[in-house]
Write a structure and sequence with these properties.
The chain is an alpha/beta fold and 442 residues long. It has 2 domains: 27-169 and 370-387, 3-Layer(aba) Sandwich (Rossmann fold); 171-210 and 232-362 and 394-430, Dihydrodipicolinate Reductase, domain 2 (2-Layer Sandwich), CATH 3.30.360. Helix content is 33%, strand content 20%. The protein is built from 13 helices and 17 strands. It has helices at 7-30, 56-66, 81-91, 101-104, 123-131, 146-158, 173-184, 220-224, 234-238, 255-266, 366-380, 388-407, 424-427, and strands spanning 47-52, 71-77, 96-98, 112-115, 135-138, 163-165, 190-198, 273-279, 292-299, 302-309, 321-327, 330-335, 341-345, 347-348, 351-352, 411-414, 419-420. A 9-stranded mixed beta sheet has the order 13-12-11-7-10-9-8-16-17. It has a 6-stranded parallel beta sheet with strand order 3-2-1-4-5-6, sandwiched between helices. Mean pLDDT is 87; it is low at 1-35 and 360-364.
């Protein structure tokens, strides 16, 4: 029997969906999870928070968490001392500033840390924080490689820590509504989900500045961390997303948000294969990541496709970024900038399947809801809806697409073993070598 979705029914069911997802989230905390050694904090107790990486995103976290009545900013750290000073000022109180995150982790008053570093520095601080008995909130992607991501998950479980990833869409009312629509069956059978992004950097991009001495406030060797030793270059520092040693481009960075919604809504997080193509076709600058890129993932029962360009601003339905679920009864578009839901109905056998559509923008505080959820989970010792395992699996599609692009061939993926099937060369990119003295814990 085909379902008909009206505006009233959609909004009513969406309201129920938010409650249902909240109930499922809390129920999920107990499944297979041991209670962390530390008991729940009292209602009036404050969570002491430290911040690792305080560039633009990190300092935004500092400002937001410092405004919560049940959180207290204890310390901040970054290899750039100018950023440390700025974050200390942003906290609006006397906090401790460090260059090395290991010094921050020694503070007993720090209960949890927020990690918003460049990609090469996601895994080690997260693992070391777990070892030090701290709970963790890690920005996406979970790590620079799939293997590092799995190591973070193992550490969180081994030390029984609350561990959450910054996939803020999971706390967004609009995306909660969207996931419920997909699961309701109103769109019919969904065989294709497409994710896209359009940027416009201009044909010269960020150019070709030469190597130089690092700013005096920056410890360049510490910033590089486990990545290879190379001279300082402003492009590597300011545009790190586009260099393999520190990032993976849009597909492994912002793309995690979108892939996470697809996994969530479709109830499937296990790709079977991936193939990608692209190159530096449009922009003349130092980037190593392609400026034009497309990928296809096969999942059990559906296909997910993705494209990104950095030299074109054509927007589908005025959306620069987004996701579209294509079903037999209709299609649903999610806006990637100002999240909302729009359903395109089709007429089947002379009957209009979707009588109306819902268009709405996400609450501005969607990001803040995610941060508040982390503090709540830390205090109550409950596993988050955006748990670290979920974040790890949502990071895999982007990493996998980069592996197949760099290999120049399709790869088949063993999701249970987390390895590339019958391709040792491609499988070597599931992990990476660390520069001494840095070592990834087993």
């Amino acid at each position: 029997m085909r379902k008909v979705m009206t505006r009233r029914r959609f909004m009513s069911s969406s309201g129920r969906a938010v409650a249902a997802f909240a109930a499922a989230r809390f129920a999920g905390h107990a499944r297979g999870a041991e209670e962390p050694a530390k008991g729940p904090l009292g209602a009036n107790e404050r969570v002491g928070v430290g911040f690792i990486g305080v560039g633009g995103r990190g300092t935004w976290h500092v400002r937001t968490f410092s405004s919560f009545p049940d959180a207290e900013v204890i310390g901040v750290c970054d290899p750039h001392q100018g950023r440390v000073a700025g974050a200390v000022q942003a906290a609006g109180e006397k906090v401790k500033g460090f260059k090395d995150y290991r010094d921050l982790l020694k503070l007993k008053e720090v209960d949890a840390v927020v990690i918003a570093t460049t990609g090469q520095w996601h895994a080690l601080p997260a693992i070391h924080a777990c070892e030090a008995g701290k709970d963790i909130y890690v920005e996406k992607p979970l790590a620079l490689t799939i293997g590092e991501g799995r190591a973070v998950v193992k550490a969180a479980r081994r030390y029984n820590r609350i561990a959450m990833i910054g996939t803020q869409n999971r706390s967004s009312p609009s995306f909660q509504k969207a996931a419920e629509v997909v699961r309701s069956g109103v769109l019919g059978r969904i065989g294709l989900v497409h994710v896209w992004a359009n940027e416009q950097w201009g044909e010269k991009g960020f150019g070709h500045p030469g190597d130089a001495d690092p700013p005096k406030e920056l410890d360049w060797d510490l910033w590089l961390g486990p990545s290879p030793k190379v001279p300082y270059n402003p492009n590597r520092y300011f545009h790190h997303y586009f260099f393999w040693d520190y990032g993976g481009g849009w597909q492994s960075e912002v793309g995690v948000h979108h892939f996470d919604v697809v996994h969530w809504a479709m109830g499937c997080d296990t790709p079977l294969s991936c193939q990608a193509a692209g190159g530096k076709l449009m922009i003349d600058d130092d980037r190593e990541i392609p400026d034009t890129f497309a990928a296809v993932w096969e999942y059990p029962g559906f296909v997910m496709t993705f494209r990104v360009t950095y030299a074109n601003m054509l927007a589908f339905e005025h959306r620069q970024r987004g996701t579209i679920f294509c079903g037999t009864n209709g299609s649903m578009v999610l806006d990637g900038h100002a999240p909302g839901v729009k359903i395109f109905g089709e007429t089947v056998a002379g009957k209009k399947v979707l009588e109306d559509s819902y268009t709405g923008s996400d609450l501005p505080e969607g990001n803040v809801l995610h941060q508040k959820e982390f503090i709540r989970c830390v205090k109550e010792r409950e596993r988050p809806f955006a748990d670290i395992e979920v974040g790890h699996k949502s990071s895999i599609p982007g990493h996998l697409s980069n592996i197949t692009y760099r290999m120049g061939r399709k790869v088949r993926w063993d999701a249970k073993a987390e390895k590339v099937i019958d391709d040792p060369e491609a499988n070597s990119l599931v992990g990476r070598e660390y520069r001494k003295p840095w070592v990834l814990p087993a």
